[in-house]
Amino acid sequence: MNVSMGPGNRVIIFLGLLLVTACQGPAYGAWRPLPGGAVELSPSEPPDGVLYKLDCEWQFLPGVFVDPADRSAWQSAIPVRLPAEWNQLKTAKHSFADGRGIGSYRLRIQLPAKHFSARQALMYRAVLSAHRLYVNGILHYESGQAGPTAVTTIPHYGIAYVPLLTGSQQNQSSGDAVELLFHVANFNHRTGGISDSVIIGPQRVVLLSVLSSIMTGVFISGVLLIMGLYHIGLWLARPADKPALLFGLFCLVISGRVYVTGQMFFAHQWLGLDFATIRRLDYLSVYFGALFFCSFIIQLFGSSKKAVWHGLVQALIWPFVLFILVRDPYHFSFDMLRFQYVLLLLAVLTLSIQIYALQQKRSGAGLSLLGSLILIGGTVNDILYARNLLLFGQVIQYAVTGFVLLQSITLARGFASTHQRAERMSERL
């Protein structure tokens, strides 16, 4: 029996395969906690293909940059489990409620002999907003300039790939252990501390993981760029088709986010943008992405209340756009928390419009609703992940890809239907 499969079903299967691929990350090994802010990597894991997430208890000293040679200072350290923002930490002398301040993190890693003989590396991001990394007392990496005050601190944010000096170069002083010491300073963002996993593993595996993440972002950005230009081209050929224009603008905005979010490789290395500019572009891409998404759904299914819905969406979003242009990064970073509630309201609005269109049996409403649910679900997941309430990981790039593919089918069906009607009218004439 031959079973035909429509384009919608093929895209749904593709999205399922994409989700499965997204969930298949590198293998992570086990570790055993030791007293005094230390862990021991499992000796049973193969040393040449396993990464370790150091999501464990670290030692933390607030308000001070501890000298790498000073061991006595850590006797009064506070145990903290990372990754976590330091905003919830409070001692008799220090409070990080506003996110601003400085501090030192330390972790000792006990390496089995077979790991110790291999070249190791670290990978991490989301250390806000400037830091230095010492490994066994030696400065290995510096992001921005971590100073004791806002004046002496230069913020910087992006992924870090740090090869470690293990083996004979360091075993004379540290035995078979690696000691990590972070000096962190934050005066430019609402949250500070180490809010993402620090990962250790063989240099080859860590580097491949970094490059894979970057290439995934570049691939998705390229797909969205092509889709955006294609639909804007359709609008230029048929200016009355405003949904194609709005959909194309949404694709272009989200395509550009790869250069200022995620690994931020291009923003720093190619574009040379500073911290404030990158954060502004990051937030503006969210604001305009939401604006074009809502306008697209309203234009496609809003029926007689399009003007009302467009006015409401613009009234909710444009104040945030104006605020970000006149505020410094620390203060406008709080606006994103407020905008998350606006996103929830806009999600309810767009879903309601599409559900009503589905009830009215509007063409393409079903696929459009499915795509919007995928996009909104991915957005909610990433919001919870950013607040350390969900550790599933960031999936918004895959959610956007799913949304774009499904909406492309919806628009393609609309164009095909219009073309078929034109052909039938031509035949009758």
Describe this structure as you would to a colleague.
This protein is of the alpha+beta class and 429 residues long. It contains eleven helices and 15 strands. Strands 1, 2, 4, 5, 7, 10, 11 and 13 form an eight-stranded mixed β-sheet that branches. A hairpin with a 2-residue loop joins strand 10 and strand 11. Helix 1 runs antiparallel to helix 11 and helix 7 runs antiparallel to helix 8. It is elongated. The N terminus is likely disordered.
Give a short overview:
This protein has helices at residues 7-23, 113-116, 171-174, 203-237, 242-256, 265-269, 275-301, 306-326, 329-359, 365-386, 396-428, and strands at residues 31-34, 38-41, 52-53, 57-62, 78-81, 84-85, 101-110, 120-124, 127-128, 130-135, 138-143, 160-163, 177-186, 193-194, 199-202. The chain is an alpha+beta fold and 429 residues long. A hairpin with a 3-residue loop joins strand 1 (31-34) and strand 2.
Task: Provide tags for this entry.
single chain; 429 residues; alpha+beta; eight-stranded mixed sheet; four-stranded antiparallel sheet; 15 strands; elongated
Biggest sheet overview: 8 strands, mixed
Elements, N to C (H/E)? HEEEEEEEHEEEEEHEEEHHHHHHHH
- The rounded distance between the terminal residues' Cα atoms is 42 Å
Mean pLDDT: 83
Number of strands: 15
Strand content: 15-25%
Helical content (DSSP H or I, runs of 4+): 40-55%
- Which word captures the global form? elongated
Number of helices: 11
Calculate Rg over CA atoms: 25 Å
- What would you call the structural class? alpha+beta
Low-confidence stretches: 1-5, 167-175
